[in-house]
Amino acid sequence: MTRSPTAPAATKVPTERTHHGDTFTDDYEWLRDKDSQQVLDHLHAENAYTEAVTADQAPLREAIFNEIKHRTVETDLSVPARRGSYWWFARTIEGEQHPVFCRVPAEETQSSSSLSAWTPPQIEPGVALQGEEVYFDTNAEAAAHGFYDIGGLSTDDAGTLLAYAEDTTGDEFFTLRFRDLGTAENLSETVENVHGGAILDAAGERAFYMVADASWRPHRLYEHRLGSSADQDRLLLQIDDEQLWSFPYLSADKKELLLYSGNSEYNETRILDLTDDDAEMVLLVGKEHRLEHNIEPLDLDGTRQLLITHNQDGQNKSVSLTTIEALTRQATGSEQQRGQPDRGTLDLGTTVLGHEETVKLDDSVVVTAAQILVQARVNTIQSVYLLPLETVRAARDGAAAVATSSLSGPSFDAEMFTVELADAEYEAPVFRVQFTSWLIPSRIYDIAHEEPTPILRRETPVNDVDLDDYRALRLWAPTGERWVDGSAIEVPITVLHHKDVRADGTNPTLVFGYGSYEMSMDPAFGIPRLSLLDRGVVFAIAHVRGGGELGRKWYDHGKKLAKINTFTDFITATDHLVEAGWADPARVAAHGGSAGGLLMGAVANMAPEKYVAIVAQVPFVDTLTSILDPDLPLSALEWEEWGNPITDPEVYGYMKSYSPYENVVDAEYPAIAAVTSLHDTRVLYVEPAKWVPKLREHQQGEAPIVLKIEMEGGHGGASGRYEKWKDRAWDYAFISYYLGAVEPR
Fold it and tell me: Cβ of 156: how many Cβ atoms within 10 Å?
């Protein structure tokens, strides 16, 4: 008789935490010290236990991995994008983990503004073009490291200099390097501990980058002059407010650098004139106005203007036209006077696009020399709309605002899809979008500004699959609640299934969810998902409150003191799938990651009987402990998402009522896999490492609870596409095994 593996026994070391008169005893807080050999030994023991418990799933994992690998065209390429005098693109090579970045000179026989000059060259996988050169081989750079990730690639306009940032541990602290693209040699200068990538100015003389504080919050903006050492870099600005996350971006014509500093509810914006070497950052809109906004400069008839996308007129946002001078006049005042909220309504100039209850504008617009490109969401669908400069001029001259819903845009023959801007060079006669749906692989279209008919450049190929074998549909699950206008609150559910599957109440079903930060689970094709559909699994996406699928209101009703709506919506969606016949109530699994991992932890406590298996990736399950410590990565920034339990006893009590780690009870929990990475800086490994032994302590059933930890990865797991496929195969094998859906139908 084979003995079942024995789970590692985590030592209990009681630690007390007291807030607002409430004391919580944490037995596993000692696992936070990842430099401790005792902790590392425990984590290795957890991995060994997980491997033993899931050994029977190894053939299934291998089968799913091979299906993903076989369906993926491994030697492939992206559509070349023109910048300056080159076409830039990436290749993938069979057997290699990472992309290879290439370029080829553009023909200069035509006017650079002609459509023919912006028609990309035809490239074949595995066949080099005449004049093609590799300017960055990620595989060669990664060869000496167990983990390798690029924080960004930036080139100057002439294509002579490359700035890139690399992370070799997974902790997302990057080293900034510079490469002479003429000689293919790196310059001697480097900058350590950069947050993300860098931005090169048009001339390639300056690089702008952020540095994070001890809590991994980007707070310092530096200017590096090429040819100098990092210790000479100029500090342009330091943001001390612990609730503001900062990042720089260039204006469309690269004349200014702007700095966004904000959170999910408000931000402030500064601007730097790049035509003046001695210029300083200038405040345009301060945080005291509590305005959520984004600013894009543009030239309009020789006058510098600003397009500001904002929520002053309504939560779904509007677009107004103003000037730097108009905003700076309202931003005066000493730093000591600034920071107090609600200092009055700002004069944001003339409204160009008015607020609509049924249209949610994206955070910003995209400026080109030909027109303004607007991304907006209507009835869950994200697409692109075209705002003529004539309409902007008319608004400037006194005309009434127009509605985004009245604008034209490229049309596509699909019901549920996503269209996003992929490229929009300022002077180009075309812009590029990416189209995808649940069952259509990514397509790249170029669209001429003068004639917005999409020109298909490429559809991502998929090997040996007939996509007509699959179906996608939308359900709406009633919550029993109503909005203030009396209309019913219903949770949208996307259902994906094989065409042979019927709503007969017998189907194994996986319910996926996220529901935080206004992030939408938009239609997108995924090869790994096909392996589940082929096994008869119904793949359902619950678009719960806290996401952005139905506009800002949908998000606001799933955060702070309404966060529990996210969890109840997921359970409501699960019940509706059963009632509609799509799910066998005895064969339902759940899957989510990061904040979606919090969702998994919450539903495991609230309704463990509804699921046979749960996979929680990098799960935010020790929510209250993390948010109570402003020195932990991202914690202070999160107060606008969850509330501040340090100062507000109501928030503390509310968060304690749902924080998964603190609400584990004696119950028959389903099989649970917590998947994490040792070097994750966003959701620390310690959260699932503590959660797992506590779940085992209270488990009243026989289902296993395991911790799988990547010892050389970050928030996204291991690096390299093959490793990521293996990770996804592991998750789906765990789910399929407990759903009883091991063999393809």
Answer: 21
Output the DSSP codes for 283-334. Answer: EEE-GGG---EEEEEEEETTEEEEEEEESTT-TT-EEEEE-HHHHHHHS-S-
Structure tokens at 607: 């309704």
* Cα separation values, 687 from 117, 331, 603, 604, Å: 53, 42, 17, 15
Alpha carbons 274 and 257: distance in angstroms, whole number: 7
Q: Which two tokens stand for residue 687?
A: 């959260």
Mean pLDDT of 218-223: 96
Closest residue by Cα to residue 496 from 470, 523, 526: 470
The domain segmentation of the chain, as residue ranges, is 15-70+465-739
Quick one: pLDDT at residue 632?
A: 78
Express each pLDDT in 174-194 by its tens digit: 999 999 999 999 999 999 999
Give 123-137 pLDDT, tens digit per residue. 888 899 999 999 999
Helix (H, G, I), strand (E, B) or coil at 444: strand
Report, as an integer, the average pLDDT of 13-37.
Answer: 96
Tell me which residue has tokens 């696992």.
31
pLDDT at 671 over 70: yes
| Pick from 50-54, 124-128, 442-446, 487-491: least confident | 124-128
| Residue 437 annotated to the active site | no
What pLDDT was estimated at residue 414?
A: 86
Average pLDDT over residues 389-410: 96
Strand partners, 448: 430
Instruction: Out of 154, 383, 594, 635, pick the active-site residue.
Output: 594
Topology of the domain comprising 15-70+465-739: Rossmann fold (3.40.50)
* Secondary structure (3-state) at 733: helix
Residue 696 CA to residue 705 CA, distance in Å, equals 7
- CA nearest to 367, candidates 298, 282, 304, 271: 298
Q: Select which of 680, 719, 727, 736 is catalytic.
A: 680
Query: What local confidence, expressed as pLDDT, does residue 71 receive?
Result: 96
Task: Provide the pLDDT for residue 343.
Answer: 53
DSSP state of 406: G
The rounded distance, in Å, linking the Cα atoms of 513 and 531 is: 19
Active site residue 449: no
> What is the total residue count of the chain?
745
Res 312: pLDDT:
96
**Which pLDDT value is given to residue 641?**
93
Active-site choice (449, 715, 731, 736): 715
Spatial CA neighbour of 223 closest among 193, 192, 201, 254: 201
Contacts 24+ apart (CB under 8 A), 279-285: 280/236, 281/221, 281/236, 281/237, 282/324, 282/328, 283/328, 283/331, 284/324, 284/327, 284/328, 284/331, 285/327, 285/331, 285/346
Q: Is there a catalytic annotation at residue 594? A: yes
What DSSP designation does 561 have? G
